[in-house]
């Protein structure tokens, strides 16, 4: 494991990509930045992070053993690892919000951005960007629901220790992925899903409907069962949870 610590970067994912063009890097090369100015989430969403208060890092993996159609299993492994590391500090309330966020109750505490290099239908390498709100107290961006670990537990957390805990738990589950323990990974992931088995309001291209999350497949498809007993499968870009509705339920 090679951890590269830097003061500031636009994006640790982008920096790791640039280094890969120049050097042969070993698996588990990790870049961690004290400040990241252009952090991104899925579909181009921004990630706000004050300097020296959070975890912003990127991990290089070579999951060449993984088939393209099963690539979401890597996202499951990362999410489980982050959740378990946070569970050291928060015993209850941490869930995985499909497809790439970690929540405490109804607020986002961490996010994941995985970028795969695919050539001829095979994964060459994966860069896993991880952002965790650790000690930040105020959030100034238009992100609707951020929360930090310090806001939840009331005291400052050592980011180096938390990063080590995250890496250890991710490595633990990545090893299980290498040994094809896919059913175990999916079971633990599905049991940790935000809003699982709860009926909430969703929206797709045909309008609004009520449904409950059942599971997420290895391909990343979410399985919903509607209040009319219909089974539906969606990719993340094809469906959204109506946030105002769920907030009203929980208030």
Main features:
single chain; 251 residues; alpha+beta; BirA Bifunctional Protein, domain 2; SH3 type barrels; 7-stranded mixed β-sheet; 5-stranded antiparallel β-sheet; 6 helices; 33% strand
Describe this structure in words.
A seven-stranded mixed beta sheet has the order 1-2-3-7-6-5-4, with helices on both faces. The protein is an alpha+beta fold. The chain has helices at residues 12-22, 72-87, 149-153, 159-178, 182-191, 243-250, and strands spanning 2-9, 29-36, 55-61, 94-97, 101-104, 107-119, 122-132, 199-204, 207-216, 222-226, 231-234, 240-241. Helix 2 crosses helix 4 (159-178) and helix 2 (72-87) crosses helix 5.
In short:
The protein contains six helices and twelve strands. It is of the alpha+beta class and 251 residues long.
Q: In CATH's first tier, which class of the largest domain applies?
A: Alpha Beta
The Cα radius of gyration reads: 18 Å
Biggest sheet strand line-up: 1-2-3-7-6-5-4
Proportion of residues in extended strands: 25-35%
What is the tally of helical segments? 6
Mean pLDDT: 92
* Unreliably modeled segments: 246-251
Q: What's the main sheet like?
A: 7 strands, mixed
Please identify the oligomeric state: single chain
Helix content: 25-40%
């Amino acid at each position: 494991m090679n951890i590269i610590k830097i003061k500031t970067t636009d994006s640790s994912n982008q920096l790791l990509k640039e280094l890969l063009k120049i050097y042969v890097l070993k698996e588990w090369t990790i870049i961690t930045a004290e400040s990241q100015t252009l952090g991104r989430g899925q579909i181009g969403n921004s990630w706000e992070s004050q300097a020296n208060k959070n975890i912003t890092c990127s991990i290089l993996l070579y999951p060449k053993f993984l088939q393209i159609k099963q690539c979401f299993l890597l996202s499951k492994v990362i999410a489980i690892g982050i959740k378990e590391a946070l569970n050291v500090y928060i015993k209850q309330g941490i869930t995985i919000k499909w497809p790439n966020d970690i929540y405490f109750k109804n607020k986002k505490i961490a996010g994941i951005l995985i970028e795969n290099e695919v050539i001829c239908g095979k994964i060459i390498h994966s860069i896993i960007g991880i952002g965790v709100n650790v000690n930040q107290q105020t959030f100034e961006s238009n992100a609707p629901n951020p929360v930090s670990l310090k806001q939840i537990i009331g005291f400052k957390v050592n980011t180096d220790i938390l990063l080590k805990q995250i890496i250890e738990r991710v490595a633990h589950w990545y090893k299980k992925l290498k040994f094809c323990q896919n059913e175990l990974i999916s079971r633990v992931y599905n049991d940790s899903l935000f809003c699982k088995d709860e009926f909430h309001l969703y929206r797709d291209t045909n309008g609004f409907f009520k449904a409950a999350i059942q599971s997420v497949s290895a391909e990343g498809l979410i399985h919903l069962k509607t209040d009319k007993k219909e089974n539906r499968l969606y990719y993340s870009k094809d469906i959204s949870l109506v946030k105002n509705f769920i907030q009203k339920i929980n208030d």
